[in-house]
Write a structure and sequence with these properties.
By secondary structure, this protein is of the alpha+beta class. Among the domains are: 118 residues, Ku70, Chain: A, Domain 2 (Beta Barrel), CATH 2.40.290.10; 63 residues. Strand 10 and strand 11 form a beta hairpin. Helix 3 runs parallel beside helix 5. The chain is extended.
């Protein structure tokens, strides 16, 4: 079911922000484009009679609808105590006029944990005059192995941002600030050092990893849930009768009774999958060879008759 992608119109990307990158005394005018789009399935809400449900802003005390211009913001400083703020009071702090990404540091990309990355965009030079400094920054980062860190304001929100080479162009990823990342020691369920494992168990686990190792091919993975739901909706739209059988939960799933037995069984299954993949590849090669054989036989017969 085709739909309009965010940041795209008539199949062509359109810029969602424009500004410039500043590093040293060099200024690179750029435009920002969406690098990814949301493929989630979005449903609207209806009552059982098919009437669309709408949300209204109503007063908790009176139950009356409130106009948007009459709404102020409240920040809870303690249980039941709020500081009321008029949106106009916040305009003093609004950074929307900033149109420059000021690069503060160039850091090794391997030093940044992926947990810090949020949304990714493409950067393109804004105008012909920007193409040379754009290429200069791209090539310099490619050779140095470092990425640029700075701050950017998109709409009215300030972000930490990483600018990096991405598929032959510059990409910009908004990032989390350090105080937005939850540290593992805040999670009570994280296991302690008391959970010891043996070298044999580690060895078997490593063999499973090796047996399941493969090259990264993003097209291999699909959102099967979304595909099934869209197929189901398409059939319903055509008036087809659909019978859906609910899958029963597997008993004992997730409970490891014997760790070694589970590791050994997992390794056998992983190796079996590897052998099946290898067999399919070999069969494919043999089929190709057999198909070309008749041509060689025909040529051989022709030489004999001559």
């Amino acid at each position: 079911m085709p739909r309009t992608l965010a940041g795209y119109r008539d199949g062509m990307a359109r810029a969602i922000w424009s500004g410039s990158i500043s590093f040293g005394l060099v200024n690179v005018p750029v435009k920002l484009y969406a690098a990814v789009h949301d493929e989630d399935i979005h449903f609207s809400q209806f009552d059982k009679n098919g009437n669309r449900i709408r949300y209204k802003r109503v007063s908790e005390k009176t139950g009356r609808e409130i106009d948007y211009e009459d709404i102020v913001k409240g920040y809870e400083i303690s249980k039941g105590k709020w500081v009321m703020v008029d949106p106009k009071e916040l305009e003093t702090f609004d950074p929307k006029t900033t149109k420059t990404v000021d690069i503060e540091d160039f850091v090794p990309i391997e030093d940044i944990d992926p947990i810090f990355f949020e949304h990714t965009y493409y950067l393109a030079p804004d105008g012909q005059a920007a193409e040379k400094p754009y290429r200069l920054l791209l090539e310099a980062m490619n050779k140095s192995g470092r990425i640029a860190i700075g701050k950017v304001v998109i709409r009215t929100k300030q972000y930490l941002a990483a600018i990096r080479p991405l598929e032959g162009v510059l990409g910009l990823s908004t990032m989390r600030f350090a105080d937005e990342v939850v540290q593992p020691d805040r999670i009570d369920a994280i296991p302690s050092d008391k959970a010891r494992v043996t070298q044999r168990e580690v060895g078997l686990a490593q063999q499973i990893v090796d047996a399941l190792s493969a090259d990264w091919k993003p097209d291999k993975y699909h959102d099967t849930y979304r595909e099934q739901v869209l197929d189901f909706i398409g059939k319903k739209a055509k008036g087809k009768e659909i019978v859906v059988e609910r899958a029963e939960a597997e008993e004992g799933k997730g409970k490891v009774v014997d760790l070694m037995a589970a590791l050994e069984a997992s390794l056998a299954e992983a190796r079996g999958g590897t052998r099946r993949r290898a067999k399919r590849t070999t069969t494919k090669k043999k089929t190709t060879t057999k198909r070309s054989a008749p041509k060689r036989t025909a040529a051989k017969k022709q030489r004999k008759s001559a």
